[in-house]
Structure formats: structure tokens, C-alpha cells
Specification:
By secondary structure, the chain is an alpha/beta fold. Helix content is 45%, strand content 21%. The chain has 11 helices and 14 strands. The strands form 4 sheets. A 5-stranded mixed β-sheet has the order 4-3-5-14-6, with helices on one face. It has a 5-stranded mixed β-sheet with strand order 11-8-12-7-13. Helix 1 crosses helix 3 (37-51) and helix 5 packs across helix 11. The radius of gyration is 30 Å and the shape is elongated. The model is unreliable at 1-5 and 88-94 (pLDDT under 50).
Length: 302
């Protein structure tokens, strides 16, 4: 049997018809739902035009279903239940996280931002497998399968699909012990006289971009390629480190670090979670986005 290309029935109109039959008038049906009486009326009239038959008659005493409306209403509840069940099933499948997801991010953001999220989601979805890869390893990324999702900061290419997450600050931090001994810098010149810890990424030169377009080129006292180790060195009193404020948040809360020369901090970058294929992305990617986006936004807003 050849199927019609488009059904004349609309689920919204069936819901309206069923509600009117149950409550006795368009206004009563509207009061019992989230729709307005004019919208219910328009849905019914549009359905009648598509079918070419009257479904409801209205008088001062209320609304009454015609014979055609009663026959259609006999099937409406079954159809509504079937559609609602199918939608719920589709949403549940969309929320299921399974298979393998590949995520790419700046290495410094993996531990404080992505790792807690991934562990939470894997606890809720035991069959989910996650592959985290740092931006700082491009040769490995090229050899591996394409990434499903990526944390990106700064302006984004116009061709990517993205969920904005919030602002990502970069700041200067040092231990109270170091600052009590060496003093607290107030400007660029006094900062340059301090012991500075450099965390090079992909051969990045020891240059810090600061507020107002200023930059500081320096000879680092200590260079460490791992940001977590550079942060630890700062906690131990080795000097001042330039890092994401998110990385230093817990150490600051514990009194192990404190912000330094905040007027010199550069403007915040934007951070977004990007993904390929848009709504055609795999269900697990879309489900991850729905679960991860609000959590990541909360973390950046703290």
C-alpha cells in the first residue's frame, strides 16, 4: 500500500479535540491546559479545513462534538498515547550515553573541568567510554579517529556548532609564603623583578599577554611543560605562575595560593563546547551536550 506523503491529522488538534470532549468547552479545555482558547480554536479550525468536515459546534452552552468529531475522538486518545510514548522513548534514547566519546581540550582544563564531569557521567552511565586528548598533542590527534567534541576558547570559526559555556579567566597566582617574602607586585615593572614560573605549550616562548595589550617577555626561573606541576611549584613558593583562574580556584580556597596583580590580568576569553554535524551528530554526542552544558556553565560561573 502506498503511504500518503503527509497526514491531514495533527496531534495538537487531536489533543484539543479530546480536551474539549472532556471539559465541555474550548475555554474550559484551555483553562485545564497551557494553551489559550484562541490557539485551541485555531488548531481545531485548521484541522477541520484539512479534513473538510466540521468536528465541533459551539453555542452559548458550550462546545459539542459533531458525529465526525465523536468518531475521530474515539481514536484520538489512542493516537495521543502512542505519540506521547514514542516521544518519551526517543527522548530517553537521546539521553542514554553509550559507546565511545572522544573529547579534546586544552590540557590545563582537562583535570579541573572535564575530568570531574566525565567521572560523574560514567558513574551514571556505566557503559559509556570516554577518550580525553589534550590540544597539545596535535600529531596524536591526526592519527586518531576524529574528535566528537572539543573545548575551545576565544573566537570560534563560523563553521562550527557550539554551546557557549561562559568566560574563562587567566590570572597570576603565588603562595602567600612567597609573596610575604618577595613582596606583592603592583605593576608590570615590579612583576618583572619576581621569580616567574613558565608553563610552555608547544614551544611557546616565555611571554605573558596582560591587560591593555601589554605583554611581559621574561627569563623564567622555572619552566615546566605540565600546568599541574607548574601550579604545584607555585604552591611550594617557587614564584608567580600565569594560569587559568579555574586551575587555581581550589588552591586559593585552601589558602595555598592567592591572586597577584589583578589589574594586570588579561580580559577573559569565551569558552565553548563544539561538536561536529550539528543535529545529525550521534545520539550520545547530543545527550552529552544536554547533560554537560549546564554543569560546565555552573563551574565557570563560580
Amino acid at each position: 500500500m502506498e503511504l500518503p506523503t503527509e497526514s491531514p491529522l495533527r496531534v495538537e488538534a487531536l489533543i484539543a479535540l479530546s480536551a474539549i470532549a472532556q471539559h465541555g468547552s474550548v475555554q474550559a479545555a484551555a483553562d485545564a491546559s497551557s494553551l489559550s482558547a484562541p490557539k485551541l480554536h485555531r488548531q481545531l479550525r485548521a484541522q477541520e479545513q484539512r479534513l473538510g468536515v466540521a468536528l465541533v459546534t459551539t453555542s452559548a452552552r458550550g462546545s459539542t462534538l459533531t458525529a465526525a468529531g465523536e468518531r475521530l475522538c474515539e481514536y484520538a486518545d489512542t493516537l495521543i498515547h502512542a505519540v506521547t510514548g514514542a516521544e518519551a522513548s526517543a527522548r530517553q534514547e537521546h539521553r542514554e550515553l553509550k559507546g565511545t566519546l572522544r573529547l579534546q581540550a586544552p590540557q590545563a582544563l582537562i583535570e579541573p573541568l572535564l575530568l570531574p564531569l566525565v567521572l560523574r557521567l560514567q558513574e551514571q552511565h556505566p557503559v559509556l567510554k570516554i577518550y580525553l586528548l589534550a590540544d597539545e598533542h596535535p600529531s596524536r590527534i591526526e592519527r586518531e579517529a576524529p574528535m566528537h567534541l572539543r573545548l575551545m576558547r576565544g573566537p570560534l570559526p563560523g563553521t562550527v556548532y557550539a554551546r557557549p559555556l561562559g568566560d574563562l579567566r587567566i590570572g597570576l597566582f603565588a603562595s602567600p609564603h612567597y609573596l610575604n617574602k618577595a613582596g606583592r607586585p603592583e605593576n608590570l615593572n615590579s612583576l618583572a623583578r619576581h621569580a616567574l614560573i613558565h608553563c610552555p605549550r608547544e614551544g611557546q616562548a616565555p611571554v605573558w599577554s596582560l591587560a591593555g595589550g601589554q605583554s611581559l617577555r621574561f627569563a623564567p626561573r622555572l619552566s615546566i611543560s605540565a600546568s599541574a606541576a607548574a601550579l604545584r611549584a607555585a604552591m611550594e613558593g617557587a614564584g608567580i605562575v600565569w594560569c587559568y583562574a579555574l586551575e587555581a580556584r581550589h588552591a586559593c580556597a585552601q589558602g595555598l595560593l592567592e591572586p597577584v596583580a589583578e589589574p594586570l590580568w588579561p580580559s577573559a576569553d569565551t569558552l565553548a563546547l563544539t561538536y561536529a554535524l550539528g543535529i545529525r551528530a550521534p545520539a550520545s554526542v547530543l545527550a552529552f551536550l544536554e547533560l554537560a552544558t549546564p554543569w560546565l556553565r555552573t563551574q565557570l560561573a563560580e
